């Protein structure tokens, strides 16, 4: 009546049991729908939510507003924190951000938004719009393309075109004066008046020309009644996007400025 | 000098052996877990039904996730009063009158893409043990049409003003299914069980053409399967 008496017997028996278990483990299967944090069902839901939200923003033209919602003097998106050009802790303060935060925030899904634009060397670069950390392994992404044109203006927080008002120049006899924030959206100049209150009409007293032959309007040229010599005149106009004060450069010679892709990456927090 | 096994060796050996035996016995049930009955069927059905509704039935095929107003109302019409078929397009409640916009005697078949069948047949759910519920949720922004909390509520079509508002209590207020103005609550199917083993939820973000009462248009369509 001796059971296991020697230590060596015990160790051998344990090894046999463990190798049997390991062999059986190789044979079992874990299906894609097994319960785990990286479940395929959850990823499919996030993917569908991202696509649905982007379809909603595309129809409302909210994506175009978010892409053009760039503060050209601060070189950042409107409402972004001081040190960055992009949002970090919150969604953008426009309708695009509103739709995305209504879709994702109640379910604790974090998201990053990147704007991918082309550069003249046929490479693509990214401008982050929202960065809330590195995505997890189970992140999903959806994207939508927006075409930008040469005469697109900057848009502010109310989806209104950003207008320069009362920019003053001194009339010194020259016929052409380049505006400070070239290029201009065509036919967007108005309220041109001088210090004595005379109003001037586009097409009659002045016209807008492209002085440096780059295909964009940037200079006011007097063709009719002019202000008195030495008098200052002021005008309002809407600046158009250009390579110097927008994150994307002008890559096409025609009316198209750039084609950007807005990419949303979402993951469970 | 020969020494056989001491008591200490015996103790070490037995303890190793017993530990290994107990852990292997404890591990075997976990190893068999992938083979037991799971919620795979509910998950697949819910996902398929949600995609079918959002990309095929309520929306035009070239613009998925953007659902048409008439189709949404036709889909969620109350079918509890009639047991033979869905009578979609009539939008009747207790008083027998119909809302003009969605009345099929006025507009012939306002939404051809929603079949005139009961919900389970519409979504091709043949398994008798499966239950399904479809609803549209949203927490409306500020204004008189929204309630004061920030929880998403079922939406409802206020037929008198033709606006989509939060349902709140469906027996009083602007959304009243018992009143005579044919309000439609955007929820259809069995009421979700409060105690259940497994309830699978499939969500889709949709945009309702024509917008909601607060000016926005996005909302969440929920398909619950259990």
Widest β-sheet, arrangement of strands of chain A: 4-3-13-5
Helix vs. strand class of chain B: alpha+beta
Compute the number of helices of chain B: 4
Question: Distance between termini of chain A?
Answer: 60 Å
Strand-residue fraction of chain B? 15-25%
Q: How much is the average pLDDT of chain A?
A: 85
- What gross morphology of chain A would you assign? rod-shaped
Structure notes:
- The complex is a heterodimer of chains A (269) and B (226).
- Chain A is of the alpha+beta class.
- Helices cover 22% and strands 28% of the residues of chain A.
- Chain A has helices spanning 7-27, 40-59, 62-68, 95-104; strands at 70-71, 76-77, 109-118, 124-130, 140-149, 164-170, 176-178, 190-194, 199-200, 206-209, 219-222, 232-237, 256-268.
- Chain B is of the alpha+beta class and 226 residues long.
- Chain B contains 4 helices and 8 strands, in the order ααβααβββββββ.
- The N and C termini of chain B lie far apart (74 Å).
- Helices cover 24% and strands 18% of the residues of chain B.
- The interface between A and B is large, with 40 and 45 residues.
Keywords:
heterodimer, A: 269 residues, alpha+beta, four-stranded antiparallel sheet, 22% helix, rod-shaped, B: 226 residues, eight-stranded mixed sheet, 4 helices, 24% helix, elongated
């Amino acid at each position: 009546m001796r059971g296991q008496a020697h230590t060596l017997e015990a160790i051998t028996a344990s090894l046999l049991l463990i190798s049997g278990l390991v062999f059986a483990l190789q044979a079992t299967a874990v299906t894609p729908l097994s319960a785990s944090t990286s479940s395929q069902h959850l990823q499919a839901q996030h993917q569908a939510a991202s696509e649905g939200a982007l379809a909603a923003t595309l129809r409302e033209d909210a994506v175009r507003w978010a892409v053009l919602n760039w503060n050209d003097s601060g070189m950042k998106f409107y409402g972004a924190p001081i040190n960055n050009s992009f949002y970090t802790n919150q969604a953008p303060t426009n309708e695009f951000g509103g739709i995305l935060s209504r879709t994702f925030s109640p379910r604790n899904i974090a998201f990053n938004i990147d704007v991918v634009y082309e550069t003249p060397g046929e490479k693509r670069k990214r401008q982050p719009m929202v960065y809330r950390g590195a995505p997890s392994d189970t992140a999903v992404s959806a994207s939508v393309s927006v075409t930008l044109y040469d005469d697109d203006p900057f848009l502010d927080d109310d989806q209104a075109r950003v207008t320069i008002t009362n920019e003053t120049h001194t009339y010194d006899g020259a016929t052409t004066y380049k505006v400070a924030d070239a290029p201009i959206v065509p036919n967007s100049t108005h309220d041109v008046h001088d210090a004595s209150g005379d109003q001037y009409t586009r097409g009659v007293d002045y016209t807008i020309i492209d002085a440096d032959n780059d295909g964009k309007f940037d200079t006011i040229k007097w063709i009719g009644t002019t202000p008195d010599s030495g008098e200052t005149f002021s005008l309002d106009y809407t600046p158009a996007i250009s390579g110097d004060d927008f994150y994307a450069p002008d890559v096409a010679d025609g009316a198209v400025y750039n084609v950007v892709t807005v990419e949303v990456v979402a993951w469970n927090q | 000098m020969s020494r056989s096994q001491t008591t200490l060796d015996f103790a070490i050996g037995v303890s190793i052996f017993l530990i290994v035996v107990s852990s292997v016995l404890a591990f075997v049930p976990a190893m068999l877990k992938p083979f037991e009955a799971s919620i795979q069927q509910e998950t697949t059905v819910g996902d398929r039904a949600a995609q079918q509704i959002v990309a095929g039935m309520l929306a035009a095929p070239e613009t998925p996730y953007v659902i048409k107003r008439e189709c949404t109302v036709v889909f969620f019409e109350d079918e509890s009063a009639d047991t033979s078929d869905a009578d979609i397009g009539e939008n009747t409640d207790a008083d027998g009158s119909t809302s003009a916009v969605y009345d099929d005697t006025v507009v012939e078949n306002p939404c051809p893409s929603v079949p005139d069948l009961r919900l389970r047949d519409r979504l091709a759910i043949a398994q008798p043990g499966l239950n399904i519920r479809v609803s549209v949720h949203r927490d409306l922004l500020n204004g008189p049409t929204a309630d004061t909390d920030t929880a998403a509520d079922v939406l409802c079509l206020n037929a008198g003003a033709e606006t989509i508002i939060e349902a709140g209590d469906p027996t009083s207020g602007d959304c009243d299914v018992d009143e005579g103005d044919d309000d439609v609550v955007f929820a259809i199917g069995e009421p979700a069980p409060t105690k259940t083993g497994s309830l699978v939820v499939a969500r889709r973000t949709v945009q309702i053409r024509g917008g909601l009462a607060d000016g926005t248009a996005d909302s969440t369509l929920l398909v619950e399967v259990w």
